[in-house]
Amino acid sequence: MKMPDLNAIRELDFRDIGNWPVAARGVTVVLLIAALLFLGYWFHHKDQLVVLEDSRGTEQKLKRDFEARAHKAANLDLYKDQLEQMRQSFGAMLRQLPDKTEVADLLVDVSQTGLANGLEFELFKPLAEQPKDFYAELPIELRVLGSYHNFGGFVSGLAALPRIVTIHDISIQPGAGDKLVMQATAKTYRYLEEQQ
Fold it and tell me: pLDDT tens digits for 36-57?
């Protein structure tokens, strides 16, 4: 294969490209097309490709958002039913919390439950109300004498009351004779109205 003559390339007249040899004209056209493609990419398409990638990412996010919202919209009736059930459950739970006027009756119910289960009260001391988020705790310090079965019946009786009563900090120690001493804190709860 014959090597091109470099002197022939130096003698090309740029004002008379039409008279160049075919190979030189072909190389020049290819170089011009490559330069135009590169410049078009560099100044026009490069930024558009970045925008395209950003748009694809946004499109995927919007598709996910749309699918999530479409799922929620398709289940809207179920969500409404569930909300109504939660409202009813919440209302039922609120009815298990005494209001201010029912606290005295609840204290009587707690003491009556203990007496009905054969317990002797050494201490029955309602403590100060302790406000929490939307409710208040009403603690009652208890010290009672009885048998293990009496204690079980008492706790079971408290669980059966129409109002919520929980037992905390239980301590059972031997007492006089065959009796046991149980110290505990019974807590009931009161719903705080919004103005409180």
Answer: 988 888 887 777 878 888 899 9
181: Cα separation from own chain's centroid? 44
Q: Is 55 helix (H, G, I), strand (E, B) or coil?
A: helix
DSSP of 11-53, one letter per residue? T--TT-GGGS-HHHHHHHHHHHHHHHHHHHIIIIIHHHHHHHH
Q: Do 194 and 176 touch, CB atoms closer than 8 A?
A: no
pLDDT value at position 164? Answer: 80
Report yes or no: 139 and 130 within 8 Å, Cβ to Cβ: yes
Angle at 44 between CA 38 and CA 48, to 5 degrees: 120
Angle between helices 76-95 and 46-74 (to 10 degrees): 50
